[in-house]
Specification:
rod-shaped, about 110 residues, single chain, mainly alpha
Amino acid sequence: MIKHILKIIWNQRRSNGWIFAELLVVVAILWVMMDSMLVDQYTYHSPLGFDIRNTYKIQLGVLQPGMPGYVDEQEQTTRLGEDMFRLVDNLRQAPEVDEVCLAGAGSLIP
């Protein structure tokens, strides 16, 4: 049975050659695509060289009227933003803190 199958494959070698060539082209294209994607993934996940241990992100916001802890503007003793700058100064003075950065997107004025 196997001898008969091998004889059929040998007799149809021209059409089998085209199928083999087509499969070779498909494998080559697939290899190039997968290699490119794997290199991109490796590059994306490789470390950038920054040490971000002990780095923290603090998000601040403004309380809206009716929320617990809200202080009316007439009762406030500080201007808008002074509390934030005082917090940054207190963090800078702490001995266990190396660096402090203040970054924002948008306006502080509600």
